[in-house]
Amino acid sequence: MSTTNVEQPTARNSLFTSVKSYFANLGLSTSNLLTEHAACTHHEDLVDGSDGADAAKTRTPSPITETIAPGRLRSLFPPSNYGAVVPGSVYRSSYPQAKNFDFLQSLKLKTIITLVPEGIPEDYQEFMKLAGIQHFQVHINANKGAVRVQSCDINRALNIVLDRTNHPILIHCNKGKHRTGCVVATMRRIQGFDIEAIRHEYHTYADPKARFWDEVFFEHFDVNTVMWLARKENWVLPEVDGAPISPPPSPVSSLAVAKPLA
């Protein structure tokens, strides 16, 4: 007696169906590839169907008082989640601490852009002042709970990052994962990077805390809103070979106009 093989439901298929239903209920249009990506890859805001509403709010780290040795006796320590987006021009990291200042100075930064709204620690302000670094603060909401990243905020950040007169520039939020990840991902789209390469770079820095809503945002971001500046500053190339990405050593809505703070 012959039997017909019937494909049994799997956990993956169940999750895939759940994610598709999730999008349909929200009336959200998204690509099949992104939906399948959500079903196959861990995201902290899709665990158990949760949107991360109960997650603790990420806060700017408190400054730590420590004894600092003379510069000639110190090693250079990059901030956690540090990487070169465009070597020599654009860098990314978590919130710099005092032990990272010598390393940042070695980059000969002209500009730092902070993507969180909290006050800037005094020692950080003093470092930027002494180093002659101009500082911008653009509040970008995190994709957490019912809160979403706003395109207008990303546009203001990109207007600063894409302006080559601000380079070399460091982009940072608190952990260098989500807000920074969204800014870099939208910049990669402007550069013409393949979406899979952009997702891979995002996960390199955000895992194991990657957020699916970040990926929904940067896949649907309208790059035309900043394309005039991108063309003016020669970021849009006829062909992009995919410059090598520097991963971290270990995967360790405001409407105000952005202006330099220092």
UniProtKB/TrEMBL annotation:
Official protein name in the record: Tyrosine-protein phosphatase siw14
InterPro entries: PFA-DSPs, Prot-tyrosine_phosphatase-like, Siw14-like, Tyr_Pase_AS
Uppermost EC category: hydrolase
Protein's cellular compartments: Cytoplasm
Keyword Amino-acid biosynthesis: no
UniProt-listed SUPFAM superfamilies: (Phosphotyrosine protein) phosphatases II
Reaction(s) catalysed by this chain's protein: 3,5-bis(diphospho)-1D-myo-inositol 1,2,4,6-tetrakisphosphate + H2O = 3-diphospho-1D-myo-inositol 1,2,4,5,6-pentakisphosphate + phosphate + 2 H(+); 6-diphospho-1D-myo-inositol pentakisphosphate + H2O = 1D-myo-inositol hexakisphosphate + phosphate + H(+)
Species annotation: Didymosphaeria variabile
Keywords carried by this UniProt record: Cytoplasm, Hydrolase
Principal place of residence: cytoplasm
Hydrolase as UniProt keyword: yes
Cellular component terms per the entry's GO annotation: cytoplasm
Gene Ontology molecular function, alphabetical: inositol diphosphate tetrakisphosphate diphosphatase activity; protein tyrosine phosphatase activity
E.C. designation(s): 3.1.3.48
